[in-house]
């Protein structure tokens, strides 16, 4: 069965003053009914353009958009049954909360009583009961964003689109609001595409993450899969932090590989498809996938180059004997003591967490 939303070979080019920018480059994507897929990538990688192509605010140079199996590529926004929540809220300043939320239903010419019922219901859903007579300027940023959410939900869209909806909120409110969005989206089972450049937000909110760079899809998968098995250096680096060590594959068996680090240290790691003995590779080692021990313990001795403390974590940059460096994270540093520059430590690599990339 095809997805509720299908993007097929979507390409969109912009021309401005002689420059040609391929904003979206031959993008294929399927979103299942009730699923939340996040488009994640750096600024300028084509996320907003993709969302605008889905919503009908841009027409692609080539490719198709299907919603519920119907080709909507050439339909205007109001005939697509999508709704968008924007970063800037986009509320009408001269209308009350009630009128803002009711707007989409008025346009659709719903009877008054039904409109009232649905608006009040959805305001309750987003915890804005009792605020229907306020104007946007009389609300906090978080409340305004919930009005924007209510306005999108009230039309019961087939696909709900979010463009960096939390960027204008402070850190704590961002976390609360994203939890609320996710809870509602799941309860209501709304097929959603969510755009962000914030990898932690993407990890927290998504069924699947589609990582984009320069208009191209790099990888799509559940948060765990993308983190544990990144498809390339870009994805590994963009999702969380990663060390890249040059290694050689020494042995390959059914479900394990033996690799050799530059200094001769050998590690047995889970099998990664496509690697055979003799090949050079890049090992992706996450900062938390290393134990920091006493000098003389573990796999190799390293020297502390730099350290900083963020409360729950201490982050250290370590120099390996053969010149490569390694960023490591230590949990609960209060209990273990903070390491100082020049100190020698033993480190142990978590074999199970090491992933290989082609050079
Ligand atoms: N209307 C436009 N005219 C010209 N260039 C545009 C236009 N919209 C977007 N772009 C360019 O397309 C690329 C992708 O933009 P966008 O989709 O907004 O990225 P993102 O949302 O990931 O930051 C950028 O290089 C941007 O400058
Ligand atoms: Mg954008």
Structure description:
With 359 residues, the chain is α+β, with helices and mostly antiparallel strands. The protein has helices at 47-55, 97-107, 112-125, 141-153, 171-188, 199-205, 223-228, 233-238, 333-336; strands at 5-16, 19-31, 36-40, 62-67, 70-71, 82-86, 159-163, 191-196, 208-213, 216-221, 243-252, 256-261, 266-270, 280-285, 290-293, 300-309, 313-319, 325-331, 344-349, 355-357. Strand 1 and strand 2 (19-31) form a beta hairpin. Helix 2 (97-107) packs across helix 3 (112-125) and helix 2 (97-107) packs parallel to helix 4 (141-153). Magnesium ion is lined by residues 47-48.
Question: Could you give a short description of this structure?
Answer:
The protein is built from 9 helices and 20 strands.
Key features of this structure:
359 residues, alpha+beta, Rossmann fold, 2 domains, six-stranded mixed beta sheet, five-stranded antiparallel beta sheet, 9 helices, 36% strand, binds magnesium ion
């Amino acid at each position: 069965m095809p997805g509720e939303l299908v993007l097929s070979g979507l390409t969109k080019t912009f021309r401005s003053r002689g420059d040609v920018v391929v904003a979206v480059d031959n993008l294929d994507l399927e979103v299942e009914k009730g699923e939340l897929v996040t488009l994640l990538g750096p600024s300028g990688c084509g996320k907003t353009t993709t969302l605008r192509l889905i919503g009908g605010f841009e027409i692609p140079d080539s490719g198709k958009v299907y919603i519920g199996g119907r080709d909507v590529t050439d339909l205007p926004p109001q005939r697509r049954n999508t709704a968008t929540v924007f970063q800037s809220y986009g509320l009408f300043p001269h209308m009350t909360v009630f009128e803002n939320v009711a707007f989409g239903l008025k346009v659709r010419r719903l009877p008054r009583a039904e409109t009232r019922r649905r608006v009040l219901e959805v305001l309750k859903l987003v915890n804005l009961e009792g605020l229907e007579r306020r104007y946007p300027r009389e609300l906090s940023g978080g409340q305004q964003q919930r009005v924007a959410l209510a306005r999108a939900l009230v039309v019961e869209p087939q696909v709900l689109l979010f463009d960096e909806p939390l960027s204008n909120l402070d850190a704590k409110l961002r976390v609360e609001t994203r939890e609320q969005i996710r809870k509602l989206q799941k309860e209501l089972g709304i097929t959603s595409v969510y755009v962000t450049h914030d990898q932690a937000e993407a990890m927290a909110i998504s069924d699947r993450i589609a990582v984009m760079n320069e208009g191209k899809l790099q990888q799509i998968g559940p948060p765990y899969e993308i983190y544990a098995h990144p498809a390339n250096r870009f994805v590994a680096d963009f999702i969380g932090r990663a060390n890249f060590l040059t290694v050689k594959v020494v042995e390959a068996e059914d479900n394990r590989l033996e690799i050799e680090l530059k200094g001769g240290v050998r590690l047995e790691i889970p099998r990664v498809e496509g690697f055979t003995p003799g090949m050079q590779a890049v090992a992706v080692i996450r900062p938390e996938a290393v134990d920091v021990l006493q000098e003389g313990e573990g796999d190799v001795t390293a020297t502390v180059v730099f350290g900083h403390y963020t409360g729950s974590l201490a982050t250290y940059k370590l120099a390996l004997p053969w010149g490569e460096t390694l960023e490591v994270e230590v949990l609960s540093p209060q209990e273990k003591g903070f390491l100082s520059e020049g100190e020698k430590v033993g480190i142990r690599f978590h074999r199970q967490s090491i992933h290989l990339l082609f050079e």
